Amino acid sequence: MSGIIPRSKAKGTDICAFNKYYYIIRSDLGCYMQTGSLNKGSDISIFNLHPACQNGDHYIGGDSYFHIINGNSCRRVTNMSTDSDAVVFSLHPNYQGGDHYFAAHGYFYIIFQKKGTYRKATNMTKDMDAEEHTLDTNFRNGLYYWSPPSKKTGFCFLKPASEWGVEYCTGPDLSSDENSAVYSVHPDVLNFLPGGLSVTKGPTIGMWENIKTITNDSSTPVTWQKKISKMVGYNKEKIAQITQNWKIEKSASIESEELAKLIAKLQFSFSAEHGGSHVSTENESWKEATEEEEQLTFGLKPRERLYLWQQKLCLGQEPVLFCCDLKITNEPNPPTSPAQP
To answer: Domain end: 142, 163, 197, which one?
Structure first.
């Protein structure tokens, strides 16, 4: 099934925990989500992500600071909306190039998935109190790794999507799957993750609808000239469902409706592997759908029949974007070209 885009393919995106909340960072949206529960989707708020805190390779939570790793350096802040108390330092060579990072009960954890190991230490600038351990084989396929909130011990990681949907695993020890547990991710949280709409709504689909069939029944050529009606724009009701249970904080530089449209645009641009159509909709009309008229003029040969098609982009089976361009064919079957505006 379609699934979430892993952190390794989505620079500037990560999951972490800070104090009693979980955080999902989306640099491509310019904001982050805060929630009290990934499983229940409680207390969801959206905050602006400061430009200096965007496009990090990894985001680490904790009790007092956020750490943002970019290349071989790390930026430490107390607030990702304001970039407060920012300090930048270099990582020790042993802590560079990790696949995932998180912090828990006084230690930083660096996961090396290909090696099947993880390293933990109290300081990433110096190789202090360092330990290296084997990563349990059941914990090596995570898409994102983070620590639990509220000083709880252990770790969490997001599992690849399965027939059970999207789930995350928690446990006390990365070296052993004993006492681990699995929880589902709430749909309101999934909607914010890259690729999440493919799970909650279904993969995006490009469909061609026959809006007019024109026939010349005579034995002589004719010129056809008429106005045709078509819907153009986005389905406001369906798009609004993406963010309907989120609180957009005043610090956020984007409104709920605009954020929902941006999330949908990105979902259409993703590859089919992650439930997208790999198309850009930047040149489409992202205003509320209305009926428009277009004047068409063309010639028809004797006994010729032409078919007029309009493209619709859907999330699952629900049309959410009615595209501007039309296609004319002489075949009754829909166009086979990719769903590209």
So the answer is: 197
